[in-house]
Amino acid sequence: MRSYLCIDLKTFFASVECVERGLDPFKTNLVVADPSRGKGAICLAISPRMKKMGIKNRCRIYEIPQNITYITAIPRMKKYIEYSSNIYAIYLKYISKDDIHVYSIDEAFLDVTKYLQLYKKTPIEIAKMIMKDIFDTYGITATAGVGTNMYLTKIALDITAKHSPTNIGYLDEEKYKKELWHHRPLTDFWQVGRGIERRLNRLRIYDMYDVAHFDTKKLYKEFGINAKYLIEHSWGKENCTIADIKRYVPKSKSISNSQILFEDYSFEKARIVVKEMVEMGSLRLIKENKITDTIQLFIGYSKDTIDSTGGTGKLKIATNVYSELVKAFLKVYDTKVNRDVKIRRIGVSFEKLVETDNVQLSLFNNQEKIDKERRLELTINSLKNRMGKNAILRGMNLQEGATAQIRNKLIGGHNSE
After folding, report:
1. pLDDT, tens only, 304-333
2. Which of 210, 207, 212 is nearest to 232 (CA)?
3. Strands 4-9 and 100-104
4. Got the DSSP string for 256-310?
5. Three-state secondary structure call for residue 61
6. Of 137, 332, 351, 374, which residue is 20 to 30 A from 165 by alpha carbon distance?
7. Distance CA 130, CA 134 (A)
8. Domains in the chain with CATH codes
């Protein structure tokens, strides 16, 4: 039987900001947000003390009760990356990199199976040892899920650890069925979002027990191949290991980019942002010597007014040229997006990437014009690399609602400093 840990750095961004100020995050009201984006700006993190007051993490500034006094910290992604890297170095003191999977900036999976004998400790004792080192060295409190597979480890972290006085939760398959089969809501479970929950609810499925005992044929009809993972997870099973993740090579490569807009955008204003995002994707494709003939667009509406929309577009020939890619994206956008509902989230994806050397010339394309545009975009890339991403801009980047100039100064969509 294998043993896994999933370690999460508690309210990471807020904790870093408190530590930097010499404050205790459990006794301090602190919000990580950028007020310059307005009252509707999302709080990237709030301190544990504010969570205890009932304020939700990832809330918007205007949702914080006005009678609560708090410190506002502007996001500093470089600082958070620095802390994250230093804490990864702590993991390496105890566990080989081959047995670590970094899941996000503040979360990592560790396969500790072969270390139980080495340290003569249980998985929970190893978790405590690493968590203590993190706190003693950097003042950051960690929580941990411990389980017999990666799924149970993640669920132990997300659901049971938060109710434990030790900040550690443990699950095996039997404990999972006994304690969480009837847990609600379903969105508390890994990889079950609101959309999936709504579809399950329509089938009169409200918890993991219901999933486990539902007609599998009907689940496959509703979810396709993804039903397999829902069914396995409902029984607490997961076959994937960290070693499998390390060995995995995707059959088709892709690049994607998404953003949450600063405010609700109209159909026309969001269309400008789509064009900007396609331009950034085109420049990246050219830089990486990749081309694509398949694109995907995602649109999320304000306050989940209606289900998200979007779609896939197919180009006649693989390319990385902006003028060709943007036509494909706008065709999907103009035909699939609801013009009467405000837009808050946009995602673009370039699928099935291949090397530029594999491009097949077409008699129906003006190859001279395409080559000229590609050379121009190579020059743009060179200027941006040497002088900064805002060294050269298109006219659309100066239009009302455009976001590229601001995003070019960010890391992961947030302030880089």
Report:
1. 678 889 999 999 888 888 888 999 999 999
2. 212
3. unpaired
4. EEEEEEEEEE-HHHHHHHHHHHHHHHHHHHHHTTEEEEEEEEEEEEGGG-S--EE
5. helix
6. 137
7. 6
8. 4-10+78-177 (3.30.70.270), 12-76 (3.40.1170.60), 184-244 (1.10.150.20), 253-415 (3.30.1490.100)
Residue type, 417: E
CA dist 361 and 6 (Å) reads: 49
Question: Rounded mean pLDDT of 133-140?
Answer: 97
First-to-final CA distance of the chain: 44
Q: How far apart are alpha carbons 278 and 294 in whole angstroms?
A: 13
Say how many CA atoms lie within 13 Å of 163 toward its Cβ.
7
Identify the sign of the CA torsion 257, 258, 262, 267.
positive
Distance of CA 14 to the CA centre of its chain: 18
Q: Does 250 sit behind a cis peptide bond, omega within 30 degrees of 0 on the bond before it?
A: no
d(CA 184, CA 356): 49
Q: Name the token pair of 18.
A: 């408190």
Q: Are 60 and 263 in contact (CB under 8 A)?
A: no
Q: Is the pTM of this model over 0.85?
A: no
Q: Is the pLDDT of residue 70 over 50?
A: yes
